[in-house]
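Hi V.,

Quick status before I head out on leave. The structure for the redesign project is tokenized and pasted below; the design run finished overnight.
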């Protein structure tokens, strides 16, 4: 799992989905969870230094964990199906998070079927400074019903059953944010309720 985290982190970084030491990745284990270290570049992760934590928060091995540990932990505590969590400062999603008057219940419209299938709805979490323990509490209020959230003036947090699935989902979110911004000033045609209902029934989605 550490090797997979390093490999996917490098892929995320090399494709410009996060910059510098921003962003963090975690994965659930049978006896705790892994989290990328604080101030670590996702493009240069050393698998042996990835933090392992117990569920009470203490570090079992590896370097000191990311200060965003509370937001990852909130997702795991509220979503038994979450096997991994990815948090990025990806450009287009972060840009959307800075817009005024976003619908709090879902920041992006259902522009594509794959956004509905991999993200569903994307609720907005009010602004908290990075590392604020209260951010975990704010996410916890939404995580039981939503596998992904957008942090105001910050970026996306996405959970999924596996690390690979979480990476694919956050990439789909980023592409949808890009489409959303490209369509500003034009009349868009999001999927309607009947089309979304068909996706939910066919693919057994929980949104």
């Amino acid at each position: 799992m550490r090797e997979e985290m390093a490999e996917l982190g490098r892929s995320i970084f090399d494709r410009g989905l996060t910059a510098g030491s921003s962003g963090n990745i975690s994965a659930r284990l049978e006896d705790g969870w892994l989290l990328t270290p604080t101030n670590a570049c996702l493009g240069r992760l050393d698998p042996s230094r990835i933090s392992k934590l117990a569920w009470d928060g203490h570090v079992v091995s590896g370097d000191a964990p990311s200060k965003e540990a509370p937001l990852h932990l909130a997702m795991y505590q509220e979503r038994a199906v979450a096997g991994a969590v990815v948090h990025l400062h990806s450009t287009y999603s972060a840009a959307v998070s800075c817009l005024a008057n976003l619908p709090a219940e879902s920041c992006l419209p259902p522009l594509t079927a794959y956004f509905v299938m991999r993200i569903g709805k994307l609720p907005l979490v009010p602004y908290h400074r990075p590392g604020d323990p209260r951010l975990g509490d704010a996410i916890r209020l939404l995580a039981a019903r939503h596998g992904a959230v957008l942090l105001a003036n910050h970026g996306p947090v996405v959970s999924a059953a596996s690390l690979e699935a979480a990476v694919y989902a956050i990439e789909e979110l980023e592409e949808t944010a890009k489409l959303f911004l490209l369509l500003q000033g034009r009349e868009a045609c999001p999927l309607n309720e009947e089309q979304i209902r068909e996706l939910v029934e066919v693919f057994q989605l929980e949104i």
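Above is the designed sequence. The longest helix spans residues 163-182.

G. will cover questions while I'm gone.

Best,
W.
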